[in-house]
């Protein structure tokens, strides 16, 4: 519950256009040596504006509340200030047939909303570029097995394994380039702001997931008795995980939980009780990058079968109050056109019930269906409800 203790996002709330993404120049950062000064340039769009505006007109690319035959996506602002969650579904990704990119991003810190939306817009492009480069390499170059970031099946042979290896390397390189771009970005201050990312590429029956932070991917599938079950596909990369804790402490970072939230371990600077980041990996947050925080994704590969029905990606605003099994049951029993919204509705009610004195967190959900046999046509009433909750 809560990602970062450095700064109240309400004190830094910046009017934000979903259409212009991070390209508006609101809350522009001017750097002079080590000083950071926030200036207001709402009338002067940034240099990214033309490219990002054109992105929002790409067919098959969705980042607002809605649905298609293949997916349902929905986000809602919590009670902590501006919505810092972002999401995307991109069909025919990379101009490849039967290929979909999905992702959810949970920003934190004073400019987390800008970081999350920047990653939402830029990471898919970097992944596509790296994939294209990988396709020109034959045979694919194997990634170091000691990296500790891959769960691809080394025993799988043939073209499926080639896709896994190629996409794994694409994820690792794209995430590295994305974090470097954020560090050098002239308009977004990522020193104490960042974002999680759980993103996947589905091509045919192959699924590759790259995860940074504590957003989560869960598979809805059938067991041998044909009962619906939930299978968690990613690990919540918290600071108290042994492998994460060891790296952070070797880099002189500190890990401890506050007395009023003993279940939430956070990362702190060696000589200062800040920023208190509740995850071990993230884009941005460069104040901690020398002290164990990394943006290297945990990459997992899966070959889907006929029993696999859907994948749910969601930010921790959902998983903090709903179990994997509850979310899978909700999606399975909901119309495809509104499944993501119903998950968010249920999570919002659960927050008020389980944590009545806490502020409801932002929530973002993407439900990716692994077949398109059921129509996801949206009724007029459903579309009106979706539009009402849509970010502006």
Automatic annotation (TrEMBL):
SUPFAM superfamilies: PP2C-like (SSF81606)
Composition skew (Polar residues), residue ranges: 19-47
Location of region: Disordered: 16-53
Domain of life: Eukaryota
InterPro entries associated with the record: PP2C (IPR015655), PPM-type-like_dom_sf (IPR036457), PPM-type_phosphatase-like_dom (IPR001932)
Domain PPM-type phosphatase: 70-370
Any one GO molecular function term: protein serine/threonine phosphatase activity
Pfam family name, one: PP2C
Protein's recorded name: Probable protein phosphatase 2C 33 isoform X1
Source organism of the structure: Cucurbita maxima
Phylogenetic lineage: Eukaryota, Viridiplantae, Streptophyta, Embryophyta, Tracheophyta
């Amino acid at each position: 519950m809560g990602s970062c203790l450095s700064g109240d996002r309400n004190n830094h709330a910046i009017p934000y256009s979903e259409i212009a993404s991070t390209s508006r120049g609101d809350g522009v950062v001017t750097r002079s040596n080590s000083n950071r000064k926030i200036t207001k340039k709402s009338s002067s769009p940034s240099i990214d504006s033309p490219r990002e505006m054109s992105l929002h007109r790409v067919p098959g690319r969705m980042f607002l509340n809605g649905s298609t035959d293949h997916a349902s996506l929905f986000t809602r602002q919590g009670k902590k200030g501006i919505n810092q969650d972002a999401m995307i579904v991109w069909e025919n990704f990379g101009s490849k047939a039967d290929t979909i990119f999905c992702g959810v991003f949970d920003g934190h810190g004073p400019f987390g909303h800008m970081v999350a939306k920047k990653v939402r817009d830029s990471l898919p492009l970097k992944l596509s570029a790296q994939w294209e480069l990988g396709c020109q390499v034959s045979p694919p170059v194997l990634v170091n097995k000691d990296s500790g970031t891959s769960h691809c099946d080394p025993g799988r042979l043939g073209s499926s394994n080639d896709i896994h290896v190629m996409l794994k390397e694409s994820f690792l390189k794209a995430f590295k380039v994305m974090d470097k771009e954020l560090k050098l970005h002239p308009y977004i201050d990522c020193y104490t702001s960042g974002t999680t990312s759980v993103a996947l590429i589905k091509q045919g029956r192959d699924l590759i997931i790259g995860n940074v932070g504590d957003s989560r991917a869960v598979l809805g599938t059938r067991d041998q008795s044909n009962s619906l079950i939930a299978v968690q596909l990613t690990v919540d990369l918290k600071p108290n995980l042994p492998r994460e804790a060891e790296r952070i402490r070797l880099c002189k970072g500190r890990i401890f939980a506050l007395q009023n939230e003993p279940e939430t371990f956070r990362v702190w600077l060696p000589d200062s009780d800040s920023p208190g980041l509740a995850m071990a990996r993230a884009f941005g947050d460069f104040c901690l990058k020398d002290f164990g925080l990394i943006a290297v994704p945990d990459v997992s590969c899966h070959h889907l079968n006929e029993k696999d029905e859907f994948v749910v990606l969601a930010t921790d605003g959902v998983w903090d109050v709903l179990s994997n099994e509850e979310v899978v049951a909700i999606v399975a029993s909901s119309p495809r056109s509104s499944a993501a919204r119903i998950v968010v509705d249920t999570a919002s009610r659960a927050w008020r019930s389980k944590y009545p004195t806490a502020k409801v967190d932002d929530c973002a959900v993407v439900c990716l269906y692994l077949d398109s046999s059921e129509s996801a046509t949206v009724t007029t009433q459903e579309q009106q409800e979706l539009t009402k909750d849509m970010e502006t």
